[in-house]
Amino acid sequence: MAGRKRRKMKSLAATAPNNGAASSEEREEFDEQNSLFRVPVDILEQILCRLNLKENILASAVCKQWLAAAISVRVANKPPWLMFFPKFGDLVEFYDPSVRQTYSVELPELCGSRLCYAKDGWLLLYKPRSLRVFFFNPYTKDVINLPGLELTYQIVAFSAAPTSPDCIVFTVKHVSPTLVAISTCKPGATEWTTANYQNRLPFVSSIWNKLVFCNGLFYCLSLTGWLGVYDPEEHTWLVRVVPPPRCPENFFVKNWWKGKFMAEHNGDIYVIYTCSTANPVVYKLDQINKIWVEMQTLGGLTLFASFLSSQARTDILGVMRNSIYFSKVRFYGRRCISYSLDKNRYYPRKQCYDWGEQDPFESIWIDAPLDLSAFA
User: Fold this and answer.
1) Which of 77, 111, 223, 284 has its CA at a distance of 20 to 30 angstroms from the CA of residue 39?
2) Is 47 helix (H, G, I), strand (E, B) or coil?
3) What is the pLDDT of residues 46-64, one digit of tens each?
4) Tens digits of per-residue pLDDT, 88-142?
5) CA gap 184, 251 in Å, rounded
6) Can you tell me which residues the record assigns to a coiled coil (predicted)?
7) What residues contact 199, with CB distance under 8 A and at least 6 apart?
């Protein structure tokens, strides 16, 4: 609409207001149209700062004044970085997919640890030998310890940064086909709280399941696609009556436990299935109708998939939108494998992800640092 108005204004400008041949009606229409965009700069910036990135870009096409104001308040999100645990030594690598650059830093604090989860720039780690569970910020080197707990075949997640009063650590463990044990803990606590819960629908908990925190609840997707939900406020566990997402053909033939991912964004839950040379399939949970809906487009969303925890972002500039970025870097660390839902193809071309070649515990997506001083 803005484009049609501007074209009409240009047409009117050819005759108004300086062209004597223009009628008074045309000059009046020109003045009326032009005045629509003459908004005081401070008010205009207040309006534009409330728009998302896509709306901001569209608004910037109105006129030069709007362009300048839109750029001055435009905010673009940073994609997360891909963190690689060292196989030997203490040198940890971080890959920034936006500029295709790798940074390295020595983190001896991670020696002997196993990755569990990442959120809000923090890692949750576990030392199998000592049963130590702790948070670690790789940029500030801050450590926050939790009570010890044996983590064998269960997944672990946390709701918020450990510096937040809303932080809850959650893990669920298989006891029997009809029973799970759920343990929770908060930073500063002296022990974990554990309770057993009945499964009213098929649900087998293992380290191969997926886990996200969304709208105050922990959502756990089992190997076969059943969705368990834990409410930390009410201390309730329920396996939802939601039919599992339809897997791609041959999904269970090879590496099925590595090729599934789960992410949350603004109250929506997404599941990604990949399988050999088949294109990835993305589902979004329809909470009202209790079904998984296959997504043909992400509407500008970008998904960053890794085995332990995945992330989602909006308002990322450039070609990264509407794509899935996987936790694999090729070509001497210069290209991260991605899949575009707009183009229905992998980048680099024909670089389908072979999940069988990667240790699923060696990498994870983590929020990018606010500055690069930690890597100076």
Assistant:
1) 77
2) helix
3) 676 666 666 767 777 778 7
4) 778 999 999 988 889 989 999 898 899 999 999 999 999 999 999 999 999 999 9
5) 33
6) none
7) 177, 178, 179, 180, 228, 239
